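Inverse folding, one chain.
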């Protein structure tokens, strides 16, 4: 990592519940969280925002949210995010075959029209050599109302921020996804 975490006991007391929850959920504190927590108020805001984006009542189902986070992480070459989000994607019931095909989803027949529309939109938002086009938003309207499109856009924007932060600081994968073929490689173009 390009910046190192501080000793766990040196973070403010009010971050302890976040770290406790990560240990409970993942078995350890996330390295990325320890870096965000070097700026405690920023970390708190980011954690609250993530909680609002990844909530049960989201109009975007949990598996689709994870599909988006993995694909955005792949495009941004964030090994930590690909690792963690792939493990979450599998826990949310997506087949191993689909997870392995995600990087080349355009050439796969495993993704339905809704997933294709969402992944295309996510890539357009993520890649600096593309822009979102009206046709992409119109394809989303077949599956989401305006509120859903706003939520999806917020999710993609958040994952871009998160994966770019982690990639820039060189946060390594922590070994959450131990599936052959789920390795960070260069993003498909």
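Residues assigned per position:
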């Amino acid at each position: 990592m390009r910046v190192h975490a501080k000793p766990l006991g040196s973070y403010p007391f009010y971050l302890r519940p976040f770290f406790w929850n990560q240990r409970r959920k993942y078995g350890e504190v996330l390295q990325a969280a320890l870096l965000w927590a070097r700026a405690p108020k920023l970390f708190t805001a980011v954690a609250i925002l993530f909680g609002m984006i990844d909530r049960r009542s989201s109009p975007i189902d949990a598996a689709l949210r994870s599909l988006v986070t993995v694909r955005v992480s792949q495009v941004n070459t964030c090994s930590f995010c690909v690792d963690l989000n792939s493990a979450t994607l599998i826990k949310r019931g997506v087949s191993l075959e689909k997870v392995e095909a995600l990087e080349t989803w355009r050439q796969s027949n495993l993704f339905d029209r809704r997933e294709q529309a969402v992944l295309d939109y996510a890539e357009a938002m993520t890649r600096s050599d593309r822009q979102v086009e009206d046709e992409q938003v119109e394809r989303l309207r077949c599956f989401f109302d305006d509120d859903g499109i706003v939520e999806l856009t917020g999710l993609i924007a958040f994952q871009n921020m998160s994966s770019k932060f982690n990639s820039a600081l060189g946060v390594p994968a922590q070994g959450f996804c131990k599936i052959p073929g789920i390795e960070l490689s260069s993003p498909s173009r």
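Residues 12-53 form one domain. The chain has two domains: 12-53, 57-184.
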